[in-house]
Design a protein that fits this description.
By secondary structure, the protein is of the alpha/beta class. It folds into 2 domains: 54 residues, no CATH class; 140 residues, Ribonuclease Inhibitor (Leucine-rich repeat, LRR (right-handed beta-alpha superhelix)). Strands 1-2-3-4-5-6-7 form a 7-stranded mixed sheet, covered by helices on one side. The longest helix has 11 residues. The radius of gyration is 22 Å and the shape is elongated.
């Protein structure tokens, strides 16, 4: 388009920045929480004139915004496809994750996430982090109540650290399109580390999945005569 739409002046605003409404965070299932570009970046994009000038925010307004976000009350939330292109956007995203103390279902699909090990989600039962950049189970958030975990299309190369979920109520795990899926005796190894697991990659636990993993897979022994 060669002309500005009426909504262009709002395209970088989160819902909290729009005036005269009382919507709270726990009333939204798919809010956009990504921070907009800085004033400097807008200047270089030659977009500064198209946006409403940002006013100085007082401490009172900051506190009101924090209450409006209300992340502590969210039970079900979809924060996928946030396009976190800058460090300050990632930091703001993690700030929100740390406030999700009551969330039970959380989707974080395709956010280029690499490490959430400092995040704790104490009530989370269902977590979807498909299409991110995790390389290890150690990089996942602390999820002691997890029942359904989806990690499809990440870059997890080994099953190291998967035993950390042994003492959780994890029932269903999806690891499709991760390098670890091609590991020898993959299904047997997963179920041997997670004896309470019922479904792996959408397939229920089968009798052949219960056979003990080959001891040679774990140890290489050298006999000296």
């Amino acid at each position: 388009l060669f002309f500005q739409l009426p909504s262009d002046s709002f395209k970088y605003l989160g819902w909290c920045d729009i005036e005269e409404h009382g919507v709270r965070g726990n009333q939204l299932l798919c809010p956009r929480v990504r921070e907009g570009p800085s004033e400097e970046e807008l200047f270089f994009r030659k977009e500064g004139r198209t946006l409403k000038k940002r006013k100085q925010v007082t401490d009172t307004e900051k506190w009101e915004k924090r209450l409006q976000e209300n992340w502590e009350s969210c039970a079900e939330l979809n924060l996928s496809f946030q396009d976190l292109g800058d460090l300050y956007q990632v930091e703001n995203f993690q700030r929100i994750l740390r406030r999700l103390i009551r969330v039970e279902k959380l989707w974080l699909v395709d956010n280029s996430l690499t490490d959430l090990s400092a995040i704790r989600l104490p009530r989370c039962r269902e977590l979807n982090v498909n299409k991110n950049h995790f390389t290890s189970f150690k990089q996942l958030p602390k999820i002691p109540q997890i029942q359904h975990l989806s990690l499809a299309e990440n870059n997890i190369t080994t099953l190291s650290g998967i035993s950390d979920f042994r003492h959780t109520p994890l029932e269903s795990l999806i690891l499709k399109r991760n390098p670890c899926e091609f590991q020898e005796r993959y299904r047997q190894l997963v179920f041997s580390n997670l004896p309470n697991l019922k479904i792996l990659d959408g397939v229920p636990k089968l009798p052949e999945d219960c056979s003990p993993p080959d001891i040679k897979f774990f140890y290489k022994m050298c006999t000296i005569l």
